[in-house]
Amino acid sequence: MADNSFSDGVPADSGEAAKNAGSTEKLTDQVMQNPQVLAALQERLDNVSHTPSSYIETLPRAVKRRINALKQLQVRCAHIEAKFYEEVHDLERKYAALYQPLFDKRREFITGDVEPTDAESEWHSENEEEDKLAGDMKNKVVIAEKAAAGEPDPRGIPEFWFTIFRNVDMLSELVQEYDEPILKHLQDIKVKFSDPGQPMSFVLEFHFEPNDYFTNPVLTKTYKMKSEPDKADPFSFEGPEIVDCDGCTIDWKKGRNVTVKTIKKKQKHKGRGTVRTITKQVPNESFFNFFNPLKASGDGESLDEDSEFTLASDFEIGHFFRERIVPRAVLYFTGEAIEDDDNFEEGEEGEEEELEGDEEGEEEDDAEVNPKV
Where is this region: Disordered (predicted)? Predict the structure, then answer.
């Protein structure tokens, strides 16, 4: 019987393969003639060719060698920039000493230890005449009411710092209702910079008058900073950054610790079946947890996402106290600084809206030029 696997000396399998190859080639030609497919392929090729890293890979070895030399120069620039920020820190320390007498006087006015003179109390506002008339009328009414009630004038500026906590969203979110009576005893907040030759850091000092909650006259929070390029990633350096912080121990009076709460729990004995009630202290949300911060991991272990967020928020609050709250306290008390911040944010949003409008306008122009599209 004849073998049908060959025909004219050509294997049957080879003929089938040739037939399939012809079909594939025909299909490929049809696909490549599709303009949409060609456009998609061209876009992908354009994206690949325009990637900076892919472009660098195509350069000759001699050029890459020169680029590496430029990176060496960039690292040296980063180290010079670090020195610049160290000198800025020295200037901050120098001018902090010049600001301090003014801040000390501010504290005296707030606490009522010193009464400002008429010259020190004079302030010219934009609507000075209207404000003066309205203020005079209001003062007369208030004085008359107090005289009738026999009330004395308040001492200093009551609840000055507590009002700032209440006005600033970043701080008010931390304050619980049971924190409020304690914060009303806050008399001053100071910033102290690290001494010359010491690692870069700053300390926030919260000064309290004697109160029924704790015996500390001052609560402190120390923020440690780093101002040098990272050896593993020197190009990420953008100036000093807070890398860790330390709090302090609060000497709470008996039964006054708002950072813990006592809960009661029932326990049943496995053998006898008797039930007993035990009390246990558990952490409680409070602003005063600010002085018992989460520690940055220093042993190479990474923090979980929630811990990293908590630590980053803590650093942001510390920076805000140092840069905004302490230097401009009266403006956060009156709300003027908060209004300035809000106006700035609204301005940024307005610019984005204008840019979007321009883009839409350009699209309309294109439509007019190409009416067939």
Answer: 1-28, 337-373
